[in-house]
Amino acid sequence: MSALPRAAASLLALLLPLAAHATQLAPIFDAHMHYNVEARSVISPPQVLDLWRKVDIGAVLATSRPNDGTLDLMALKAPDIPIVPFLRPYLRQPDRYDWFGNNREVEQYVEQELRRGIYRGIGEFHIFGADADAPYMAKIARLAKDRGLWLHAHADEDAVERILRHAPGVRLIWAHTGMSTSLDKVEQMFEQYPNIVGELSYRGDLEQDGVLNPRWKQLLLKYPDRFLLGTDTWITPRWGQVEEIIAGYRRILAQLPPEAARKIAYGNGQAMFGLR
Ligand SMILES: [Zn+2]
């Protein structure tokens, strides 16, 4: 240790906090958020923007039930926070259980929303196992592929594979990266399907006691271009946890090489949706 010249040591001491500080301030692309109707009573659209600025969320993939939440956030036209709108196929909360099963109301709603011509993807929707073979799911997958839209699927690996069979090559954001799917299976899916991107909210195995899971680190570094972060404000109390969630992500990012961290934090979302 004594071989380290005093000047170099003091320079290092100076730079380390600066590096940590830079990670703290890197903007985050929030790839999984909902401004659902129930949240309105606790946080207004301008307050949502204030919160994003406070935690340095620099861009957002918005998907709300109903879609008015997303439209109202976009209407504020915040020049510093681009919003990438996704069409959520839900009018009411219970639609998540049967939106794909001959739900005429949902189908009409989706048709009507698509006419806006603003959406970059469809989701987040929930689908599990053989439900993904429902004709309407297949229709949505093919429509997304034909129109160059992304899918945002909260799904098990079985459903993801069924979706990809309906529309090979369709681009899919895998919400929660399968949530509880084993990391060996995630790795195999990523190898097999280059058009899948994983979103990391609710992956409880990402870290333990503040330390990034080594198996996760390996995966993130193997595919640094294919992971996104998300707050997933799916229930109103999650809005009160956004700061804490983002702090958790920053703790994880600080344990990755800066280039991979920058991509997962923001660069991947930026590249996927052509943001500046
Ligand atoms: Zn969600």
UniProtKB/TrEMBL annotation:
<feature type="domain" description="Amidohydrolase-related">
    <location>
        <begin position="129"/>
        <end position="275"/>
    </location>
</feature>
<protein>
    <recommendedName>
        <fullName>Amidohydrolase-related domain-containing protein</fullName>
    </recommendedName>
</protein>
<dbReference type="Pfam" id="PF04909">
    <property type="entry name" value="Amidohydro_2"/>
</dbReference>
<dbReference type="InterPro" id="IPR006680">
    <property type="entry name" value="Amidohydro-rel"/>
</dbReference>
<dbReference type="InterPro" id="IPR032466">
    <property type="entry name" value="Metal_Hydrolase"/>
</dbReference>
<feature type="signal peptide">
    <location>
        <begin position="1"/>
        <end position="22"/>
    </location>
</feature>
<keyword id="KW-0732">Signal</keyword>
